[in-house]
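Support reply, case 0932

Customer input (verbatim):
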Amino acid sequence: MMQTWLSISEFSKLTGKTKKEIIKLCKEKQLKCKKQDDEVFIEVESMAKALVPLPELEIIEKENSIAERTIGMLLTLHEKVLMSKDETIDALKEENKFLKESIYSLQEAYEEQKKTIERLQRQLEICQDELEFCRRKYKLMWGQVLKREEEKNNNQKEEK
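Our regenerated output:
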């Protein structure tokens, strides 16, 4: 982590504290200080701990951890929702594929049944034609038989 250092005068302008107060905080080790080229520099991150009272800093840190946990939990929930959405989409795609295949299968079965019905209707027509032919033949045959019987009967009556 990179540290940012400010000169005492910049730090004073930023915080509104006098140079004496800043030096006092450095001596009490509440601020991180370093001396370089006869000038004192203050580390910026230590400024928060020195300027904000300790109980308030703990509350801020606690709220940050709550916020971080909440954000983490929300991100986790978001990931789960996305995964669930993807699973739902995949399930719907599989269901659509199954339904499409079922429709094709039903369509093929319908076509086969339609062909079977047409074939049976043709066979029925042929059978009906053959039956009608047999009826006519039967009538014709029995008609001739009856004529012969009548002729026989007439011939027998005449003979008597």
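We compared this against your earlier run and they match. Two observations from our side: The longest helix spans residues 54-159. Residues 33 and 42 are 5 Å apart (CA to CA). Please reopen the case if you see a mismatch on your end.
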